[in-house]
Design a protein that fits this description.
The chain is α/β, with parallel strands linked by helices. The chain has a single domain, classed as Rossmann fold. Helix 2 crosses helix 6 and helix 11 crosses helix 12. 45% of the residues are buried. Keywords: Lyase, Pyridoxal phosphate. InterPro entries: Ser/Thr_Dehydratase, TrpB-like_PALP, TrpB-like_PALP_sf. It comes from Lysobacter panacisoli. Its cofactor is pyridoxal 5'-phosphate.
């Protein structure tokens, strides 16, 4: 296992037992998020955009802080994030009374920066990408003795994200689609569901597919392209998550940027669900995934209002395919029973109404 994995010297192995332990910790703080059937997409949606702080990321951050408290680790926590992990950490630290510092790229959405500040965490803006922010956070952690909490490459974080999969088990899906940036959500969900025979499919955006390339043996670092899905714009995927997904993931679908934009607008207009770019990514990949009972994780909903307004003005989604009409023969009407024929009859009109009808007929004769 690569030495860069942020495990604080702990065993980097993550198991289903860790996911179950995370569920027990989080139960008193986080309610399960709802499921929604998007009929026009032919897909169920796990609405993590309705989670605390608007993203699934709060699960991993909160589980990591709770697990650290159980181990007696009370150090301040620092994390690098494009926004959602920072917000989840800020909320969790506020609830537990832990000092938290977040390092975010200078181009992070204002909605996410404001969300972190709201919960009292210290915000440092550094670099133009997640990877530059991550390097600066690691430097600050080493200088000050902080606990560096990876957004995805930490056993406690992966176990916390896996609780999404445990909540999906009741749906009994045959396929679950999850967005992949560093791989924490995909690894956790796969841990939770693979023993039940559920196919777990990853979704990445074209030009931001470092996990797919790494799993194919291509570990060259390439600068990810600019994308609406800023939450998955990761130059280097997690090492621990790579190890897990190598044996757990069934497939990874790469989505074009135009597909993602159209899906996000359709979600807003047809399903009345606001998702950020990364949040709509799994559903965009869903059209290429076969399954009678498939489910896409809407991972977050922290979308700037200006971005949404621009998308609604620029993107004209194609009309959805008309549903197939299912013909079903109705059972034959049973004959009237003899007793019904003996029921008394009643006049259907009054004398005054009959006179009006006759006058109308004479007028138009």
């Amino acid at each position: 296992m690569d030495g860069d994995v942020a495990t604080d010297g702990r065993d980097a192995m993550v198991t289903v037992a860790d996911v179950l332990a995370a569920q027990a910790r989080l139960r008193r703080y986080l309610a399960p998020t709802p499921l929604h059937h998007a009929e026009r997409f032919g897909c169920w949606l796990k609405l993590e955009n309705l989670q605390r702080t608007g993203s699934y990321k709060v699960r991993g951050a909160l589980n990591a802080l709770l697990a650290a408290r159980e181990r007696g680790d009370h150090r301040p926590v620092i994390a690098a994030s494009a926004g959602n992990h920072a917000q989840g950490l800020a909320w969790a630290a506020y609830r537990l009374g832990v000092a938290a510092i977040t390092v975010m790229p200078r181009g992070a959405p204002q909605t996410k920066i404001a969300g972190v500040s709201h919960w009292g965490a210290t915000v440092r803006l550094h670099g133009d990408s997640y990877d530059e922010a991550k390097a600066f956070a690691a430097e600050l952690a080493a200088q000050n003795g902080y606990r560096l909490l990876s957004a995805f490459d930490d056993p406690d974080v992966i176990a916390g994200q896996g609780t999404v999969g445990l909540e999906l088990a009741a749906l009994a899906p045959d396929a679950v689609i999850v967005p992949i940036g560093g791989g924490g959500l995909a690894a956790g969900v796969a841990l939770a569901l693979k023993s039940q025979g559920v196919r777990v499919i990853g979704a990445q955006i074209e030009g931001v597919d470092s996990m797919l390339r790494a799993l194919r043996g291509d570990h060259a670092l390439r600068e990810p392209v600019a994308t609406l899905a800023d939450g998955v714009r990761v130059r280097e995927p997690g090492h621990l998550t790579q190890h897990l997904l190598a044996s757990l993931i069934d497939d990874i679908v790469v989505v074009r940027e135009a597909e993602l934009r159209e899906t996000l607008v359709r979600l807003a207009l047809e399903e009345h669900i606001i998702a950020e770019g990364a949040g709509a990514l799994a559903l965009a990949a869903g059209r290429r995934v076969a399954g009678r009972r498939k489910c896409a994780v809407v991972s977050g909903g922290n979308l700037d209002a200006g971005v949404l307004a621009q998308l609604l003005s620029e993107v004209r989604p194609r009309a959805p395919r008309r549903p197939r009409r299912r013909h079903r023969e109705l059972p034959a009407t049973p004959p009237l029973e003899p007793a019904i024929a003996t029921l008394p009859t009643f006049p259907t009109t009054t004398p005054r109404a009959a006179a009006v009808v006759r006058a109308h007929e004479e007028l138009h004769a």
